[in-house]
Every structure is written in structure tokens, then in C-alpha cells.
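Re: export button greyed out
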Amino acid sequence: MSISYNPIGLIYSPFKSKEGVPIQPKGAKNIKGKIVLKEEFTAGLDDLQGFSHIILIYHFHKSSGYELKTTPFLDDKKHGVFATRAPKRPNAIGLSVVRINSIEKNIIYIENVDIINETPLLDIKPYIPDFDVHITDKNGWVANKIDNLKNTKSDNRFD
Amino acid sequence: MSISYNPIGLIYSPFKSKEGVPIQPKGAKNIKGKIVLKEEFTAGLDDLQGFSHIILIYHFHKSSGYELKTTPFLDDKKHGVFATRAPKRPNAIGLSVVRINSIEKNIIYIENVDIINETPLLDIKPYIPDFDVHITDKNGWVANKIDNLKNTKSDNRFD
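Workaround output, generated via the alternate export path:
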């Protein structure tokens, strides 16, 4: 069974290639970008300006193939791909939470963008702390690597 | 341009139909389910047991079609579909964060499941508070509806 989606628009950012992209929105403070939604979907943005943050679900269009054991940007050891946020995955789906600066018709101006230019966007959802903030008691291999987050940028290891 | 994904497995839960499903994991405390990953992907789960929570990205297989203005379960007013978490969306992609109880080979036993039985799973990512917790300053139309969350269940409005 195969599931097909049509992008609802494109994400634009200053990052023209895979090198040097912040690896998460929290490493991308103040990086600005925009979403250009296909005009036919503009009415779907009504009331979105009431939220400060949105969840973007998108296709890692520069990734192809995957390995089940992979070395993520934050570590030098291999982990199961589903225990990482690496872009090369069986289904190359990316997830980022960004801040909305403004919305004009079908264009959303965003901030904290850790996404490559011209990435196909699949869905937008409002980020709602009551839904989306969870208290964890185990943070796996990431727990003692997180201090590297702000200074770690992507490289070509997933080429 | 169309993007195709093959499910990596199925999500099993006590919810056999769309009626009565909790509308978010936070309304689904203690509801147990399991993920049966396709065996070929089992090695991708290595080290996932170190995390207490995972993000599931899945296909709303019981949804078809969409309206750009929709009335979500938590409200009686219409909002742009991208300002809601409604299942009927241009791309019917769902997102839930669930708790891991245990992992045995290709099976992940999970808790806080707000997902219909036999939902096709597209991706698993570790939930990492340093990546995934964001401080919002605006929570849109949801802000004064959130008290309804624990008691609101889905109904057939998206049929």
C-alpha cells in the first residue's frame, strides 16, 4: 500500500544546500523564511494568525535512501534511525515548529527556520502547548548531547 | 508533484471506529495500544527504548476529502483547517506523541493512544523536549476551549 500526498506549498529559507543548516529550530533563532501556500488553500489559513507557533510537516526533498543504523549530527555513534531525527529515513518526513511573524494572503512569514530552501510542505498544524508539551522521564542518547545543539550544523553525511 | 510513502507498520488501539476516540493523547491517558513495525525495519528501533515518548506521524486512513473551513471537535465555530488539528485535511497526516511502555523486537507497546485501530504508520521520531517544547505567546481560538479537552471525544462530524 502506497500513500500519496500533494504538497500544499513550498518553504523558502536562506539555506540553498544541505551544508550549514541548523539541525533544529532551536539552533535557528532569528533565521527567517516564508511559506508560499498554493492559492487554492488560502482560506485554510483563517485564524492561524492567532497562534504564535506552527508545526510544519514536510518532505526532505534533498534526502534519498536511508540506513537503519545512522550517525545523527549530534553524535558520533550509530543509533536506530527511528531513535534519531536524521533526514534520511524510510519515509523522508520532516517536522519543525516555527514562529509566525505575519500572514499575508497565502504567504506566511516565519522565523526559527531549520529547513532547506524550496522544501515541499505537506501540512501545517497549530502548535498548542496543551497538546504538544509532554513531560518525559527518559531522553535517550540525546540527553548528554544537547549542549551541542546550538552550535551543530548539518553537513554532508546524509548525502 | 506527488510524494508517495509506504507505511512502515500499523498502529493498533481499542478504537475500532471514529466515534469516541479521544481527540489528543492528553485525553487518552492510560489507553494502551501497540505498533507493529514491518520486520524489515526492526533494526531502526535500536536505542529507542532510551526515550519515554515518541512522535508518531501517520495517515488518517478513515478520513477522506476536506473543507478549508472546518468546525473542530473543541469548538462550535468554523476555523481554517490549518488552524485546527482536524483529521480531514488536504493531506490527511496525523501527529501524536505517545508514551513507550516496552519494545519487543518489532513491536512497540504504547500508552496515551488517541489513534484509530489499524492506522498506517509513516514515521517514528524520538520526542526530545529540547527540540519539541516551545514557549508560545498566542494560542489562538484554542486558548479558552482547552478545558474541554479531557472530556471531548470525536464524533462523526468528519464523515
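Chain A is about 5% helix and 30% strand. The button fix ships in the next patch.
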